[in-house]
Structures are given as structure tokens and as C-alpha cells.
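Hi everyone,

Forwarding the result from last night's run.
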Amino acid sequence: MTGPAPRRVATAARRAARPAGLTLAFVVLAAAIRWPALHDIPRYTDETGEVATAIAIAFDGARPLVHNDAYRGPFWAYLLAGVLAWTGPDPDVPRRFALGLGALAVGATYLLGRAVAGRLAGGVAALLMATAFGPVALGSHVPWSNNSTPLWVALATLALHLGSGGTAARADAGPAIRPGRRADTWLALAGLLWGLALQTHPSVLALLPGAALWFVAAADRRARLRAPGPWLAAAVFVASLAPILVHNVRAGSAVYVEDAFNPSQPVAEARGPAALAANLVALAGQVGRSAGAGPPREPGDPRPDAVVGLTDALRPAATAAYALAILGALAWAAWRGPRRVAAPAASAVAILPWITDGFRSFHDMRYVVVVLPLGYVALGASVARAAPGSRARQILSIGVVALALYALVATAAFYRREAAADRTNAPIRAATAWLAAHAAEPGDHVLLDKAMRDLKLGGGGNVTRALEQRLVLMGLAPTVADVDEIRWFVGNDDGTLWILAADATVAQLRSEAGGAAIQDVPEAGAGPPRGGWRVVRRAAGER
């Protein structure tokens, strides 16, 4: 009489373990795809400012209420700070942290797709998210809080679905969670996750109207507004934003808006119909480039090799194909379902062109990647909806594989192009690694030339700040100085001076008295000069 029960328990355990195993497999696949060129491409951006906040939390006792600006919360910075406190100071940890969150976003995309449309839909969505150009080459390499937004949005949408009490889309999507305490718990979690997503970037505001409208669109979900569950979720959402709210109340209510609409931000200034239409087209193009086509080559780049040349030639068609696939799938999902992913994505597509025009550069891909997991789930749902063995299923499956493979080719071509153009972090990493090993003797002094700030790395990055942060995390204490201060050290400090300086600064120092004592350090990556800066040394006792 007791025999069947253990078998039922074992079967239930296997069923529960199946999505966990597939989720882990997709996370591992995504991490492997994201690992190449992690630390070298792209060059260091203003990520250094965001990482500095985490460093201050981990090692200096800082406890900020916001991130490094007033319109983002500290959640991401505290997460990275916890990792740094665990690993100890290491300049490579922030990018590994970005890779980890990017890989987890792929797992979250699989779980979302599986929950709303079944295993096949989840697998298609996860495969496309694992290989997508923007989430791989930018989102999982650069430690910006905004690059983690797709993870929290996918999880928030999943929690909203599980808390909605709706009917499961397919038998293999798992049982529906009916209204009750368990559903209310999922709704509360959804409120928390939407708040954490909004902490990472205010662009999440554009998704919220669609998510809210979807919830109240059905009569059974509207009826739940008479119960405390949805209102508890709203309260949790507001509570999750408490650090930002408290900071801005203390600093003045206009601070949030002033930071968000700072002239340095890609804020859309033109509001007419023509400008809006152009911005909408630009958004679609950025979606296509981020999904798989990649960015165009920069003026002055070396002549492309065969792979780079091929992707350059195909980029316009590839951009259109990816944009049509994703936006078309979302439009189809808005009509046929799953509307739970189409609604927030459509809201974002409709609202973002009104508030930002950051849809053109490689680094601005971060503003549209939040749409990708939702679009991929919609695309996966369209594949799953086609009858097994039908011509439609075959064509859609071939198209999905082509989209995934071409995105990998475009990413490899991008890495080759950046390396050929010397747009990598290799010189900075080589110089800091060599100095960490050789410039720690008593009396050694490392000087960083302020003039290197004019040597832009892209994405708001500069050489001085990148070098300083790496050296600090390697245990050195560099001094950032202008040419007059460097000149004073050369004339008055008896120890060994290691000077990382712009070529113009080095030439100026060598033209003055005692300049002959300033020697290049080729083994530290000084020559031939790359990027307009070099490492030089003035030995102890020489003036």
C-alpha cells in the first residue's frame, strides 16, 4: 500500500529538478560565450565611477542611499561591494561580476519563457539571449548597474506572472497559481523586483505602465484589487525605492530630475512628430544591432579582414532582420499572447523615444537591451505555438538558429576589429600588472599624470581614472598629479618615481634640467607608445 507514494515523490522531484538543470545549463553556456575578451573589450568606460561607489562601501565604510547619481539606487553597488569584500581587492572582479549577472539574465529568460509558454519557448528565448551581441559584448563586460536591468526585469515579469493567478499557457509550463496567499507572495516579490530593477536605471519606468495595464486588463485580476495582495505588492515596490526617496527628500526633490536630465545624458530634446518618428526608427535599429548585428566600424579603422568585412556588408540587412524578428514577435504576442511580456515591452517602445535619443552608439545599447528578454520570450512563444513537424515550426526553428549563430559571428568580428584598431585594455592591464609586481619597494612612488584624462577611452572613460582604480585595487597608492606637481617630485623626491604620463608631459619633462634621468620602461608596456601615454621611471637618487 505504501509502494506508489515513493515513486510519485521521486517523479515529482525529477520534474522539479528538470527546469533547474536546464536553467543551469543555459547559465553556464552564457558564461562561456561571455568570457572571451572580458577584460580587454570594450575599453574601460565610466564604469570606474560606479565601481568606485562599491569600493567605498566595501573598504571605506561608506553607506550611500543612492548610487553615483541621484536617480539610481545603491542596490547594485552594495551587491558588488559584497563580492569585493568576499574576494578582497581585485581589479578584475567588477567585470567578472558583470559577466555573472549577464549569465544569470539568460537563466531568468529561460524561466520566464518556460513559465508563460512552455519549455520550447524558454529554450528559444534563452538561446537567443545567450548569444545576443549587446548583452554579450557590452552588458556582460561593462560593470554598469544598467547592464543588470534585464535580469531584474525578467525576474519581475516572471514573479508578476506567477502572482497573477492566470491559467498556464501550456501543460509543460507548470500549474497555474490561483489567487491566494501563495499568489500574493509572488505579487509582493514582483513589487520588490520591479523596485530593484528601477534602482538600476530609470528607463524601467517606461515598462511599468504596460505591466500595470496587463494586470488590470482581465476581470479576474481586476477583482483582486479588492483584496490586499496587489496593494501589498505596491507598498513593497515603494519601500524598495526608499533609499532613493530618502536621499532626494534630504537633498531637495529636484535633484533626481536634475541628474536624470543632465546635459551629459542622452535626453530627447525634440518632441515633434518627425523627431519622434525618427527616434522610433533609431530605437528599432538599436534593437537590431544589440540583438545581433553589432555596431558599425569607426572612421579610421584598419582595413577589415574577411570576417569583419562580411559582417560590415551584412549589417544593414542583419539589423533589419533582428529588429523585425523581435518587434514583430512582440506585436504578434500583443495580439495572440503571451501579453504579459508584450505589454511592458510595448510600453517601453512607446515611451522611450519620448524621453531619450540614446539609440545610436555602441555604449547606448544599454538603453534598449531591457526589451530583449521580453522580445525573445515572445519569439519563443511563436515557435512553440506552431504545430510540431509543421513547415511553420521548421522555418521558425531555422530562423532562430540563424539569428543565434550570426550574433556569435558578429561578436567575434567586433572583437577582431577592436583588437586590430588597438581599442583594448591590454596596455592598461599590462602596465598595472607590471607596476604591482615591481613598484612596491620602500621609497617607490607612483605618479599618474592628470593630462591623461584627455585621452578618452569611450563611454565616458579616461586613462587616468582607469589606471588609478586598478592600481588601488592592486594595493598601490598612486598620486594623481599635474605636470607641475610631477616636476616637483622629480626635483625633490629621492625615491624611485614611476610615472604614468601623457606623451606630451613626458616630452616636456625630458626637455627640462634633469630630464635625461627619465627613462622609458618598455617591459611595462611603454613603447612603442600606444594611446598617447607611457610608463617612465626616474631611478632613486637621480635628479
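Strands lie at 445-449, 456-458, 461-462, 479-481, 497-502, 518-520, 533-538.

Cheers,
N.
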